[in-house]
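In practice, a research group might receive sequence data for several interacting partners and want a quick structural hypothesis before committing to experiments. The following worked case mirrors that situation: the sequences arrive first, and a predicted assembly follows.
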Amino acid sequence: MRIAVTRKIPEAGLALLAEEAEVLVWPKSLPPNRDELIAFAAGADGLLTLLTERVDGEVLDALPTVRAVSNMAVGYDNIDVEAATTRGVVVCITPDVLTETTADFTFALLLAVARRVKPAADAVLRGEWKTWEPLGFLGQDVYGATLGIVGMGRIGQAVARRARGFAMTILYTDHERRLELEEELGARFVNLEQLVRESDVVSLHVPLTSETRQMIGAEQLRLMKRSAILINTARGGVIDTEALADALESGTIWAAGLDVTDPEPLPPDHRLLRLPNVLVTPHIASASEATRARMARLAAENLLAALRGERPPRSLNWEAARGRAHP
Ligand code: DGY
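A structural hypothesis for the assembly, expressed as tokens:
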């Protein structure tokens, strides 16, 4: 078996793959572009991809030997699952193993933005801090604030559990009410309009789909409190980037913490990066040593199982793709 891995991933995953297959690892630090991916993976039975590679029907047609694609991510907006299924290609992802680490980082970003950690620490580094200041770097309290969770899936729920420790009032919106969770999490179901109006903090935890693309735009931002904070650890495309930059510049909302952006990365001269009320991090919400190792291992287990013809631990289309499997 030949497996193409589109970047160097934690050893835990590579070692597992190497037990059963010949493993080719893309050697550069930047991801392969479309043509490079096709040339690199030619003849492979399986692909282990990252969220930086677009895998669609055209790519799969150019790689007819590929029988399975294992994405080392829970999000899979980079993969055309329908195109894969019709070609009998199994698609796998890595849910669960990153939930708690991502929820931790959501709070890291929220606390950093609310309490202005970056501008304050930068002022110290520049030698500008001379004394304790009664009016210096005043932020917003997180304790006791109202948190609006958009998308009460695994990560949204893990964020809600943390929010209880901060005595936050929890609102949530989702495509359906999650009655079984409401009592456990002390969360109240509202629609998106109510959520953005009433929340002190809006935190996004939805996958990027045609329904969620730019679901936070000028209209939603206008409804938010002027003191509100927007946190995004989901996908950049869920927010209309230019509308957000306008809202932050004009004081329509107070601040934002973005671990993901659209485009990703933002061009270095993008106006969002110059605003003092924005903290942008490089898509690191799942980036703990243990979690990235777990993701790599699960991605490898998924891929090997699919290539052996066994049900992978976490596949999106095992049954359907198997029905159309390669001869
Ligand atoms: C994912 O898994 O989708 C994250 O964005 C990266 O860990």
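Before designing any experiment, note the following. The chain has two domains: 2-97+289-322, 99-280. The chain is about 40% helix and 15% strand.
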